[in-house]
Amino acid sequence: MSILKVARMGHPVLRQRAQPVSPADITTPAFQKLVDDMFETMDAYEGIGLAAPQVHESVRLVLVGITEHRGDEEAKMRIVALINPEIRVIGTETGEDWEGCLSLPGLRGRVTRPNEIKVSALDRDGGRFELHLEGYPARVTQHETDHLDGILFVDRMTSFETLTFLEEYARFWAKD
After folding, report:
1. Taking the domains of the chain in order of start, what are their residue ranges?
2. All residues at 6 or more sequence positions from 118 whose CB lies less than 8 Å from its CB, including other chains
3. Would you identify the CATH topology of the domain 12-173?
4. pTM of the full predicted structure?
5. Residues 104 and 152: beta-carbon distance below 8 Å
6. Which residue in the list 144, 161, 167, 168 is annotated as catalytic?
7. pLDDT of the chain along its 176 residues, tens only?
8. What does the alpha-carbon distance between residue 76 and residue 67 come to, in Å, rounded to a whole number?
9. Residue 144 is a catalytic residue
10. How many Å apart are CA 164 and CA 44, to the nearest integer?
């Protein structure tokens, strides 16, 4: 496995609409290596999500960290690969929260997004599955799938008043 180079804002691959993955390609060694390399890259950068365009591959593949709460147990995060994901918004409730991005290193900003979604996708084996997500996992999934359509979190900001460098975020904003 390899740690892949992350594209930064300004690279054209981040502004392109990514191509769907053919179900026949999912089980190929090359595609499986891409998925494995993305897992390693996300771990190395301590990310909560990663989209293929961020590693210079214009295909509809994202990884998202989903935290699962099980009673009194400590919350555990699992990383899920979503191939050709499709999102359906549930309800009308939205929330605003801070977002950052490996492709915009050192920046944070507040973004409003739907609070509840259903996402359907193919898994690593090409099987179709569906997830019902709320709150933070829904936000992460929407953020990562935006990359598949050439959208960065700054494009979703309604005001740039909260766009800040990470150091200033920690000093002045992290308390909210």
Report:
1. 12-173
2. 87, 88, 90, 130, 131, 132, 133
3. Peptide Deformylase (3.90.45)
4. 0.94
5. yes
6. 144
7. 899 999 999 999 999 999 999 999 999 999 999 999 999 999 999 999 999 999 999 999 999 999 876 665 667 789 999 999 999 999 999 999 999 999 999 999 999 999 999 999 999 999 999 999 999 999 999 999 999 999 999 999 999 999 999 999 999 888 75
8. 5
9. yes
10. 24
